[in-house]
Design brief:
The chain is mostly beta strands. It contains two helices and twelve strands; from the N terminus they run E-E-E-H-E-E-E-E-E-E-E-E-E-H.
Length: 153
């Protein structure tokens, strides 16, 4: 389910997901390829992974170049601050950043187009982020550095 009639595929977008809660528990439909394609979001998942972080762990900002990836990001457990930076040098928006607070109790999916760097800051212990990627991570094309609050002081 999308929260609007259209999405801008050139910018980061926060999308609603189907979320049903009742006495039996919770159902969350995080990805619906056919529904997203109706809005022009063609996304072929190449990688699907989870990252568990302790409170105050900062990951990123990272991206892969060449061979940039689109990403769909959601929080499975806990709470994260998600930071995106436009790293497309040929556009006026180069260097612009956005920050989103995402939490498992209020599920959303964030679409991050190619050319954006992404970073996360875990706001609670054992927070879990779920990432679906449109391309395969190539180790020599991307660098990931993780810092805890203690390492930054």
């Amino acid at each position: 389910m999308l929260g609007s009639d259209s999405i801008n595929l050139n910018t980061v977008q926060v999308l609603q997901v189907k979320h049903i809660e009742n006495q039996a528990g919770v159902f969350i439909k995080n990805f619906d390829k056919n529904n997203y394609e109706r809005y022009g979001l063609n996304f072929d998942v190449s990688e699907d992974y989870f990252i568990v972080s302790h409170r105050n762990v900062l990951r990123g900002i990272h991206m892969q170049w060449p061979n940039p990836q689109k990403r769909l990001v959601s929080v499975i457990q806990g709470k994260f601050q998600l930071i995106t930076v436009d790293l497309r040098k040929n556009l006026e928006t180069f260097g612009e950043s956005e920050s989103f607070n995402l939490e498992a109790e209020n599920p959303h999916l964030v679409y991050i187009p190619e050319g954006f760097g992404i970073g996360t800051l875990a706001l609670l212990d054992n927070s879990i982020i779920h990432v679906m990627s449109s391309g395969t991570y190539i180790e020599e094309n991307g660098e990931i550095r993780t810092l805890t609050k203690l390492e930054r002081e």
